[in-house]
């Protein structure tokens, strides 16, 4: 592969990466806590889309526990979406560049 081909591929990688980043809002992940009593759904842009709370948890004396469960579910969803978003971006650029040992494109995926 000559340098001109490589530069052309890099432009295509950048274009596909931009397109993939724009579609990250459609990639979602849900985190649960309290055995599924609290569920939080986030997207690839790390925006919280939905919080679902089992009706049995909505009691004034359980307020602190509910808050803790929401935080735990949100943290799980955020941790899981990172992996899913990276995979989404990787698939968008798959096959564009040769496998070059030591070439790390993670900076493009942030």
From TrEMBL:
Give one Pfam family, short name only. Answer: YbaB_DNA_bd
Q: Where's it found, cell-wise?
A: Cytoplasm, Nucleoid
Keywords attached to this Swiss-Prot or TrEMBL record, sorted alphabetically, are: Cytoplasm, DNA-binding
Query: Which segments of the protein form a coiled coil according to its record?
Result: none
Record-linked InterPro entries: YbaB-like_sf (IPR036894), YbaB/EbfC (IPR004401)
- SUPFAM superfamilies, per database record: YbaB-like
Similarity remark: Belongs to the YbaB/EbfC family.
What's this chain's function? Binds to DNA and alters its conformation. May be involved in regulation of gene expression, nucleoid organization and DNA protection.
State the oligomer form and interacting partners: Homodimer.
This protein's name: Nucleoid-associated protein ACFSUS_04515
């Amino acid at each position: 592969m000559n340098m001109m081909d490589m530069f052309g591929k890099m432009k295509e990688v950048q274009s596909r990466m931009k397109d993939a980043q724009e579609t990250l809002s459609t990639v979602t992940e849900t985190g649960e806590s309290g055995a599924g009593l609290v569920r939080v759904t986030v997207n690839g842009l790390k925006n919280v889309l939905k919080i679902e709370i089992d009706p049995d948890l909505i009691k004034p004396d359980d307020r602190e526990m509910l808050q803790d469960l929401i935080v735990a579910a949100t943290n799980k969803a955020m941790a899981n979406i990172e992996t899913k978003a990276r995979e989404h971006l990787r698939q968008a650029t798959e096959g564009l560049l040769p496998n070059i040992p030591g070439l790390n494109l993670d900076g493009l995926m942030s």
